[in-house]
Amino acid sequence: MRREPRALVWLSSLLVIAGTVALIVVAIVVDDNHPLSTLSPVGRQGRDIAALINPIFIVAGVVFFLVQGAVLALWWRYRVSGSDDGDGEFGYYEDEEFPEQVHGNNRLEVAWTIVPTVLLAVISVFTLVALFALDDVEASDEELAVTVIGQQWWWEYQYHLDGDTTTPPDIVTANELVIPVGVDVPLDIKSRDVIHAFWIPKLNGKRDAVPGRSHDWVIQSEETGVFRGQCTEFCGLSHGYMKMVAVVLTADEFAEWRDNQMKPADVPEEGTAAAAGWETFNQQCANCHVVNGLTSAATRGGDPESPPDDWSIYGEFNGEDAGPVHTEDLVSGAAPNLTHFITRSTFAGSIFDLYLDAGEPVPYLELSERGTLNRGELEAWIYNAPERKPAAADELRGMPARTGLSPTDIDNVVAFLSTLD
Predict the structure, then answer these.
(1) Cα(264)–Cα(293) distance, integer angstroms
(2) What is the rounded CA–CA span in Å between residue 186 and residue 184?
(3) What CA–CA distance (Å, rounded) separates 149 from 169?
(4) With the C-alpha atoms ordered 322, 332, 173, 45, is the resulting torsion angle positive or negative?
(5) Exposure of 158 in the CB half-sphere (CA atoms within 13 A)
C-alpha cells in the first residue's frame, strides 16, 4: 500500500490547524463597525441573541478542538513509517504491518453518545427560552407601530402613530426605518410578491415576510446611529441588492422627523427648474410614485370607497384622500413613496448613498440642508435604473429605464426631487 510523503502530511495538517485558528481569530477581532455584524449588537433583542450564540460557539469550539486533537493524537500514536523504496520519500508496507485491530470500547461509545445528547438538550432549553423572549412582540413604550412590506427589491415602512395597523398609515416611507432610541417598536411584516426576510443584525434576528401573511416582530436599539440590514431569503434577480437601513434617533429628533414626514409636499414655484421637473415627473413617474400633496386624483385610478388592505398606494391631495395610485401596470402593486425623498440617506433599495461623504458626518435630520447630493448616481439611476441595479423591468419588476429623457429633463427631475424635504 502506498504511503504519502511525510512532508505533505505535515503540511496538510498545519494548513488545517492554521486555517481554523485564523477563522477563530477573525471572528473574535471582527470590526465592530461591520454593517452586518451580529457580534456587536446594540439592541436588547440583538443582545439576547448574542447571549445565546456566544456560549454555543464556545462549546462548539471546545468540542472541535477535542475531536481534532483526538484525531491528531491517534494519527501520531499509530503512525507507521512503512518500507523505504529507496528514494527516501515514498514507501510501501504490507498489511501485516498494521496495528492489531479491535472491535471497539463500549464505555467510550456510550460516553460519546450520552455526552453530546445531554449537551444538545441543555442548549435546546436555552434556545427555546431565547426564542420565546424574541417572540414577545407586544411591549411598546409608545403608541407607535410600523407595517413593514417587502417587495422586489426594496422595503416600505408604514407608520401608524396610534398603534393600529388596520387603519391608514400616518407616514409612508421607503428603504429607511426611523425609530426612537430605547423604544420597543412593534413591526407587522408582510410581502407583496415573494418571500423575503427582514434582518438588521445589530438590532434583532430575522423574520420572514410571506405573501398573504402578517408576521409580528419588534425592534429596539439602546444606541442612536445608523444600522444596516439585508434581505436574507432569496427573492429573485436583485436579492443581493435588497438592503435596508435602520436610523435610530433621540426622542426629540424622532418627534421632529415624524412631524416633518406628515407634511405634504409643496408645488414648486413656476418658472423654476423644479417646476419643469415636476411636469416631467407627473408625466413619467406619478403613475407609480406617490408624492403627498402633489399627485392628484386626476392621475389616479381605482375606487377610493373600497380601499385595499395595503394602504401604501394611498396619498393625500389638499388634505383629502386622493384615491389609490393607478397600479395595474405594477406586478407588486406599489412604488416607493417619494414625498420626503430628499430627507433620506439612501435610495434604490439602499444600495446607493443619496449624499456624498464630505469628510464630516452630517446629522441625519440635516442631510437635506447640509449634505452634498450624490447627483451623478441619482441621475444615472433615473436614466437607466436596470443598468445600475439588476431588475426585470420587462416583467414589470423594478424601476424601468427612462432613456427617452434628455439630460435637461433629468436635471429638472433632480431639481424637483431636491425640493421634497
Answers:
(1) 5
(2) 6
(3) 13
(4) positive
(5) 23
Does the reported pTM lie above 0.85? no
Domain ranges of the chain: 2-101, 143-421
> Which residues in 114-124 are b (16+ Cβ under 10 Å) and which e?
eeeeeeeeeee
On whether the CB atoms of residues 415 and 373 are closer than 8 A, the answer is: no
CB 293 within 8 A of CB 303: no
Instruction: Let me know: does 135 contact 281? Beta carbons within 8 Å.
Output: no
C-alpha to C-alpha distance for 76 and 117, rounded to whole angstroms:
29
Reading the block at residue 292, the C-alpha cell is 403627498
Under 8 Å CB-to-CB from 317, ≥6 apart: which residues? Answer: 292, 293, 294, 295, 296, 297
Nearest to 363 by CA among 230, 256, 221, 204: 256
Cα distance between residue 373 and residue 419, in whole Å: 12
271: Cβ contacts below 8 Å, ≥ 6 apart: none
Cβ atoms 5, 64 nearer than 8 A: no
CA distance 191 to 212: 7
Q: Is 38 helix (H, G, I), strand (E, B) or coil?
A: coil
- The string of DSSP codes covering 180-214 is ETT--EEEEEEESSS-EEEE-TTT--EEEE-BT--
Is-cis flag, bond preceding 153, omega within 30?
yes
Mean pLDDT in order along the chain per 10 residues (421 residues) = 51 64 56 64 80 82 84 75 51 59 77 87 86 69 84 92 84 93 90 91 88 88 91 88 92 94 88 91 84 60 42 41 42 77 92 82 88 92 89 75 88 92 88
| Cβ count near 134 (within 10 Å) | 18
Task: Estimate to the nearest angstrom the gap between the alpha carbon of 262 and the chain centroid.
Answer: 26
Distances in Å between the alpha carbon of 176 and those of 249, 287, 330? 12, 23, 22
Angle at which helices 106-134 and 44-77 cross, to 10°: 170
The set of cell numbers assigned to 210 is 410571506
H/E run at residue 359? none
Residue-level length of the chain: 421
Q: Which helix (H) or strand (E) holds 119?
A: helix 106-134
Sign of the alpha-carbon dihedral angle for 145, 150, 151, 154: positive
What architecture (CATH level 2) is domain 143-421? Sandwich (2.60)
